[in-house]
Amino acid sequence: MTDRPDGTVAAIGERALIERLRRRVGRHPAWIALGIGDDAALIEPGRGEVAVLTTDSLIEDVHFRRRWSPAAAIGRRALAVNLSDLAAMGATPRACLLSLGLPVDLGVAEFDALVDGLVELADAAGAPLVGGNIARSPGPLVVDVTVQGSVRRRRALVRSGARPGDELYVTGALGGARAGLRLLERGLDRAEASEAERRCLDRYERPEPRLRTGRSVSRQGAASAAIDLSDGLADGVRQMAEASRLGAAVDAAAVPIDPSVTEVAAAIDATPFELALAGGDDYELLFAVPPRKRRTFLAAVKRAGETSATRIGRLTADRALAIEDAGASRPLGDAGFAHFRV
Amino acid sequence: MTDRPDGTVAAIGERALIERLRRRVGRHPAWIALGIGDDAALIEPGRGEVAVLTTDSLIEDVHFRRRWSPAAAIGRRALAVNLSDLAAMGATPRACLLSLGLPVDLGVAEFDALVDGLVELADAAGAPLVGGNIARSPGPLVVDVTVQGSVRRRRALVRSGARPGDELYVTGALGGARAGLRLLERGLDRAEASEAERRCLDRYERPEPRLRTGRSVSRQGAASAAIDLSDGLADGVRQMAEASRLGAAVDAAAVPIDPSVTEVAAAIDATPFELALAGGDDYELLFAVPPRKRRTFLAAVKRAGETSATRIGRLTADRALAIEDAGASRPLGDAGFAHFRV
Lengths: 342, 342
Known about the structure:
- 2 copies of one chain form a homodimer.
- With 342 residues, chain A is an alpha+beta fold.
- The first copy, chain A, is 35% helix and 24% strand.
- Chain A folds into 2 domains: 147 residues, CATH 3.30.1330.10; 173 residues, PurM-like C-terminal domain (Phosphoribosyl-aminoimidazole Synthetase, Chain A, domain 2, Alpha-Beta Complex).
- In chain A, α2 runs parallel beside α3.
- Chain A is globular, with a radius of gyration of 21 Å.
């Protein structure tokens, strides 16, 4: 065949790739009874806990571009977006699986870096890579990750548990990731990037799943519902409200905007508020907190030591979704990233 | 946008697709604490069991072609190949996740049929669809499935447990699936297909994971090792022998060849033995059985009521891999389907 240039994954073949991958995986913690190399992996359940299972994929030219982002960042991000789902459940990560669709022209060095990026975060999060598969892709690079975690059944934070009057809190500051993506789309030269531009890039390429925060809040029973902000704040509020059969009112002035976004917004023809509200990719957490648990909640967030939380609104019995801005109220709209609408 | 013709997945968008998918999922069994619609699914572990986790993907134009196989068969097969991994561990399926990369031109009717094909098998196997994600693919249709099962730790059948002198048994009859694939490659007209051709097609498109057999053998502790034959008998023997640090001798005359293969082999320029040995896609199981457990093993296979098992050789302390044919011995070779070598 002609499509196996030297140094590509096609040139060395599936078995050699699996062997390279296996060498990159470190020692397994005690709960992994069987890791890579068999028909399936075996994972000891946590005592008194249920298994938490989620999957998410990154597809080239939809979720990332190879020429924009280093392979290590792509691998790391593919896992991070899944860990963020566990964080939103208050769960502890236990293991991950990696399913790759590889274009024949992908370099072996890129393959190695992608796996390294994923494994580094997997080990740090306590969710070692225990299996997966490698196939050829006739089109885009496809990075599909599944994560298993565990949580006490009654402590799991679901989307649907919110009650009218619960307050909405969001972690961290928003808009940075989407600003970073816009900068990449506009051909930002990394070498020339300003401090603020670099911070936005980092927010896009290296999201930090809020695992300690989710777990700390879940253990204190301090939230009635939670969701992670993969598709933006407006989308997260809408999804939580719909799942809980409620409405919501967001206080525009309270939405925490990443200060770096304010610095770069003009250059990318966007307002910081738009990016924060509809941007997505920030992977912060949105919590519904009963007012009487406010102090417990804030203490749990603080104890986790990852980031702060800001009150941005409340859930309402009236099922409308509204933004309150300088005394006026307007619909929250249908903002957010829809994969089939870009 | 121009690439959203009526009736395609792109025209109706991600949320509508998720809603269609959700409607196709039936009632959950008791061990599913939380299914589709949250950040992650929650699954109760089996008492005294470990979780078994595996993932495998089907990628268009690598593992299937849309114009060859009905969408329902593609969806069903994407799950079946994963269930086969659980069968090879002796595990009981508990839940599955589906991660789809959808080309914009995929029809909604095809999407529905694909999901229906998967869900039907998922429900029959006791592994309901509990989550997943849907993304756009700028290239091939990508169907990535993860399955979680459970098994008693000490009953798990691994590849590496075989001992010298253990006998090799394979379930069912081999070669049919690869013959079916070859027929498709040669443009077989389904309407004109003979009985034997149809049986080969069925073996390729609708593999039957040997779940009851794997579980029955595992519960009786009747095998020292097991593996499923996704990449062919020769590959399975090699992988089991390597994992167990052994060699193997396969008796050519004993390999059970699908009778339909014998009927169609001439038309596809292959010998039935080649197809059976190196063909792949049959998803039968290969077991290593200590001679003193032979009767227990055969009784366990019979009790499962799915298929028979045939003794085809033995594992050896000498690490060579050989085929014994009419008194002569030749190397087993490196046969089997390698995804980067097709």
